[in-house]
Amino acid sequence: MVLLSEIQKKITEIRNVFSKTAISSVEIFFQKESKLHKEFEIVEQLSCEFDYLLIVSSVNSDYQSILVVGINNKDLSNLLNREEKIDLEEASDIIGEFGNNYCGLLADDPDFTKHFGILTQGMPIVCTNGKTLLNFIWGVEGKIYFNNNWMYFGYAINKRNTYE
Amino acid sequence: MNKTVILIDDSKFLLKQLSDFFEKVLNFKVLSLGFDGNMAVDLYQKHKPDLITLDITMPNKNGVQALKEILTEFPNANILMISAVRGNAMLECMSSGAKGYIEKPLKFNDADFIQDFKETIKEIFTTD
């Protein structure tokens, strides 16, 4: 439990980094202004249910992490200023690239790197129509909104296993 | 005559934005678009552009592998890496012969970012 407490403390110290990065990543990538629903919360388990879910794992010598971004189809269309439903292939392309950018912005944040260093991203995975529970102990999650549309962000991080 | 460029990234969404940026802001002629490292090598051999941009994290063959393959055959190739990867990646690319490294996200609405991008392109062709 000592290790988990250490992670909990660290993500609590820089909780606003995750929400700030969510806001700026939407602004840069989609050229849309968004606002925090409320400050991101520290949770023991990321949990969300959206039409599209992006999962990006990252790792360095000390830590492993998972970024989760959730968005519903109508909200993605709104972000792109389009009326029609975005098909899975295009949604996967756009959300996947968005996730890469979010991770890049996190890596540019000195508070994040001071606590966790620079993590190398894996390939993004986009899932659809499913409820997700990530048993990846201790993370930070929250929502941002724009024009009555919602976007979910969750970031879970843990010490990397050293017995590999 | 406009300089020519080939753009390589596994995101079609980003390629569209990047293509518009190179044509409308930087006045390049975009010859072709590719989605992985294999296409990068093939398209470079076919077109021999003035510049090729490479993402790093791509399927089939990543950008660093493509960079090295292109430079083995074309040592004077102008290659600009455009990636969200941080850390040692930049050093590895530059020491392998990339002429520049732009970090994602690409802030197309940010005047400072556009200026830095233009400076990078200028430096590539100044030292060409």
Overview of the structural elements:
The complex is a heterodimer of chains A (164) and B (128). Chain A is built from five helices and eight strands, in the order ααββββαααββββ. Chain A is an alpha+beta fold. Chain A has a single domain (2-159), classed as Chemotaxis protein chec, CATH 3.40.1550. In chain A, strands 1, 2, 3, 4, 5, 6, 7 and 8 form an eight-stranded antiparallel beta sheet that branches. In chain A, β3 and β4 (63-71) form a beta hairpin. Chain A is globular, with a radius of gyration of 15 Å. Chain B is α/β, with parallel strands linked by helices. Chain B has one domain (4-122): Response regulator (Rossmann fold). Helix content of chain B is 47%, strand content 19%. Chain B has helices at residues 12-25, 37-47, 63-73, 89-96, 111-126, and strands at residues 4-8, 29-34, 51-54, 79-83, 100-103. Chain B has a five-stranded parallel beta sheet with strand order 2-1-3-4-5, sandwiched between helices. In chain B, β4, α4 and β5 form a beta-alpha-beta unit. In chain B, α2 (37-47) packs parallel to α3. The mean pLDDT of chain B is 94.
Quick overview of this protein structure:
The complex is a heterodimer of chains A (about 160) and B (about 130). Chain A has about 160 residues and is α+β, with helices and mostly antiparallel strands.
Roughly how many Å is the radius of gyration of chain A?
A: 15 Å
Multimerization status: heterodimer
Please outline the major beta sheet of chain A. 8 strands, antiparallel
- Choose one word for the global shape of chain B: globular
Percentage beta strand of chain A: 35-45%
- CATH architecture call of chain A: 3-Layer(aba) Sandwich
Return the domain count of chain B: 1
Percentage of residues assigned to helices of chain A = 25-40%
Structural class of chain B: alpha/beta
Query: How much is the average pLDDT of chain B?
Result: 94
Backbone shape of chain A: globular
